[in-house]
Amino acid sequence: MNDLTSVDEALRLLAEHAPTPTMENVALADALGLRLASDVVAQVSRPPAAVSAMDGYAVRIADVAATGSTLDVIGEAPAGAPFEGTLGPGQAVRIFTGGVLPAGADHIVIQEDATRDGDTLTCHRAYDTAEHIRAAGVDFEAGATLLREGTVLGAAELSLIAAANLATLSVYRRPRVGILANGDELRPPGSDLQPGQIVNSNPIGLSALISSWGGEAVDLGVAPDDLDAISERIETAKRIDIFLPVGGASVGDHDLMRPAFAGAGFQSVFEKIAVRPGKPTWFSTKDDAVTLGLPGNPASAFVCAWLFLKPLITGQEHSFVPARLCCDLPSNGPRTHFMRANARITDEGMVEVKPAGSQDSSLISPFVSGNALLMRKSNSPALVAGECVDVLLMKPLGLSS
Ligand SMILES: Nc1nc2c(c(=O)[nH]1)N[C@H]1C(S)=C(S)[C@@H](COP(=O)(O)OP(=O)(O)OC[C@H]3O[C@@H](n4cnc5c(N)ncnc54)[C@H](O)[C@@H]3O)O[C@H]1N2
Ligand code: MOO
Q1: Which atom of ligand 1 lies nearest, measured to the CA of 183?
Q2: β-strands 176-182, 216-223 pairing
């Protein structure tokens, strides 16, 4: 096994050679899923001033300490048009949700608790503590650092940034990942398949994973089992950060991806990984570009995309979740095994994991019926049901049963 690079060493080498992310400014609407290239600092406080949380009347609490107190309504403060005067003793200002609290007021009487007759307001309740006011900056203060560099932008983050009064952002450009399939047998989905032909099913799934991880998938097509044809695809590809050849990674006479990339000037970093599935996964670099070669077997391609492509795109390490094994497992061989599995939360709130019945590296269906990869380190001993294992979640827990 000497020619096999360990999973940990492969991850270290990938991190060491990962393409340097470039920065760009984008509009908020184009930033979903991207990573922040700098901290986000609030340009305004939220809310910028104290506001009413209810529709009603802004008053001084001292004036409504007793039931039946009456006040003069001296003006209005709808959201967007603050009352410009100062509220004095015995006075009230009609206010609406989001309206700026007038100077002098320290309490809101909700309209359900008062009756208005012309400009006279009568309160039906006595109050001893101020209510229904949102203080200035209760969500965040101007100048506060709201998000750190590296944060992946989701719905909540984008709303927060918009509220902080920023229209554009500095983000890391999506790395362009060029998927190059290879094999004379491959035909597009929907083809009239002839004997020996199979559907080219890997790129569509890999492309979806790349997008979900914040990369931009570029379809470099299917190259036939011909060195010149593969080389031409490599030479004519434009602005690719990460080449992702899929298939043709092994030792067969028709496995030509490695020599094609070597011929294009890529220098090998590692040739094989002590991982199951996906042993023939390889990695090479040239200038600012890298090549992660995945095996063609669909399970190998998917597992190794999760393990090795995802950190290359996101720059983030994997986080494993501890889970209770729900069956016995034999001792593991020399390669770290990432078993296709399903994890779920039990009624007792524990995470429980069950490996798929077949771990054949050609199978796609376990990725649909399952949601996790169960890690078994190289040469680890047999396990019995109930023992704890580490799992990598590919979907949120509980989505599949
Ligand atoms: N003598 C040896 N043979 C093999 C070894 C070995 O060490 N010695 N390694 C095996 C392992 S492990 C794997 S994994 C595979 C990897 O093979 P390749 O990367 O060269 O992949 P292909 O031969 O091109 O294809 C394998 C398999 O997957 C199908 N395939 C390929 N591309 C696609 C695609 N885009 N969509 C769907 N299916 C695809 C292809 O038809 C084959 O059935 O090698 C073992 N052999
Ligand atoms: O390492 Mo290969 O991916 O098992 O079939």
Answers
A1: 24
A2: parallel
